[in-house]
Amino acid sequence: xxxxxDSTSTAPPPGAATRGAAHGAARELARAGxxxxxxxxxxVVVLAVWVIIGGGGSLTRIRIRVTQAAVPMxxxxxxxxxxxxAPVYLTLRNLSGNGDVLVSASSPDAARVELTSxxxxxxxxxxxxxxxxxRATVSLSPFxxxxxxxxxxxxxxxxxxxxxxxxxxxxxxTVEATVTPPxxx
Length: 185
Prior knowledge:
The protein has two helices and ten strands. By secondary structure, the protein is α+β, with helices and mostly antiparallel strands. It has two domains: 41 residues; 117 residues, PCu(A)C copper chaperone (Immunoglobulin-like, Sandwich), CATH 2.60.40.1890.
């Protein structure tokens, strides 16, 4: 007996093997990418819920309002008040729910501006910053925390002295302080 080949056998068409391999590779690629994609979507949903319930914090703009700004003349004559220091009276209101810090001040009308802490008419020590608590009012005067103009120009009652206040979060606040007669804030 001899074996004969059946010409009706089903042989795969040419190129079928490569199509099957490509289809299998695409399936493997999709399966490999599904896990990171699902994890990313879950993470986005969890973070969105966290932010919605307030866990992500909030971007609150800190607002500082200056309600009083005065620089009293040291004497009634320009000559007597030149070349000295002059106290600055300021009332600062923090209108936001977050605290801030007055970190420095400057003025084009003085050689420099010093922030001091302590009591006693300008005899305090230099301070690195002045905390302004949330929703609080802080008064600066020579009897506590104080700004001092060092070597100011002539101080004439009724004129303005520009002060540039720098806060850690609120940024720069520029204010015009009125020069007042001696003995008045």
